[in-house]
Amino acid sequence: MAKKLGFLVNIERCIGCHACEISCKSFYQLEPNMRRRRVTELPENLVGTPVRAFVSTACNHCDEPACKKACPVGAYTKREDGIVVHDQNMCIGCQMCGKACPYGVPQYNPVKKKMDKCSMCYDRLDEGQLPICVEKCPLEAIQIVDYNEVQPSNAVSVVPTFADPSITHPTTHFILPKPGKQTRRF
Amino acid sequence: MHDLPLVIFTILSQLVIGGFVTLWWLDRKKSPISRQSGLMISISLVVLGAISVIISLLHLGHPFEAYRAILNIGVSWLSREVTFYGIFVGLSVLYTWFWLKDEAGKRGLIGGIASAIGVIAIFSSAKIYMIPAIPAWNSVTTLFSFFLTSLILGPLFVGAFLAIRSELSVNISGISITALIFAAIVMIVYFSSLQGGLPQAVEAARLTTHQLLFWIRLFTFVIAFAILTFCFKNQHIQNKKIYSLVFVILFVSEFLARFQFYETAIHL
Prior knowledge:
The complex is a heterodimer. Chain A is an alpha+beta fold. Chain A contains five helices and ten strands; from the N terminus they run βαββαββαββααβββ. In chain A, a hairpin with a 4-residue loop joins β6 (107-109) and β7. In chain B, α6 (172-195) crosses α7 (199-209). Chain B folds into two domains: 1-129; 133-268. Chains A and B meet through α2 and α3 of A and α3 of B.
């Protein structure tokens, strides 16, 4: 059975240090305003009791990628293992993929005048290494999971600010923080 | 604004297709269009079509690699739009050739095929924007508004041209009034659906109506409607000045509407 690789982001562990975001940006030498991975703060009422929580998101390597359908040159392919790869050599910079993706993942590289997005470091994965964001996270808050093998029972497919997953069926899942105990003082 | 080339391209391409279908239809109806007028209208449509294609390339990062945009025709509406519009412009060149040669039979056949392909090109163009990622676009009103732009501008363009050459034998204002009434209904449905939609759609409606451009668009739309209605009731005053004026007013109106369509689109 083919793999279905996706990110599993543990929000409980994430402290919002941006190490994943910066290590990816540095590794791929991205232009100043570009990020393949972004860390954002979530609303504090995420799990009932107030918590300070962050979420790290990148390409969701969707089951039905809108970028792939929108691209007029066929620059997007979905590999056997589920990774959605963008071929910059094919790209003509029409930016339609960026419009079509509900998560706004593909970004325009103003220097190359082509689109750019997370590739889940597939070349590193093929060599048995971890994606750079997974490797550099000091809290081990990001994992790569084969969702055809494992279905983490505590994972959810949507968090606030995340677009409706029924549109493109993203593979990214999240582990929400545990609600804190509230102590009432009289 | 990054999308300005697309604003110009969509407006021009829809005008060209609408104008082409009108010319073909008038020619088929055996309306007395002289060879010279038909040729001139046909050439001007080909030139506008070519200009629209060149302008559309300006929004690409790599315009000289645009030829590759037809590769994903199996799934991408943008590929389909490029392909069908390209074929349409090619056939309109051939149609112009048959005006030059004054071969009515071949002109009618090629014109019919080109008209059908032009309609498919507008359909493909609208489908590009009907995407869930942008709620303000993801509606059938996008499809209607693209076709209505064609129906509003195309016949008026040909009508104004024929009026200038004193060859207008059909009352174009009736078609234009009908198109404007449909456009007004589509506008009402569009804003109602935005107001009842996702927060991004509501925000798009707020942004649109809070811009001065929206009110200028509405004002020009109403003025054009009033002039056309007056023309329709007083058929003896159909003249070149009125048709040219209404065409210019509605061109500005449609341009502003399309500009706002792109400018106020809020992503999920």
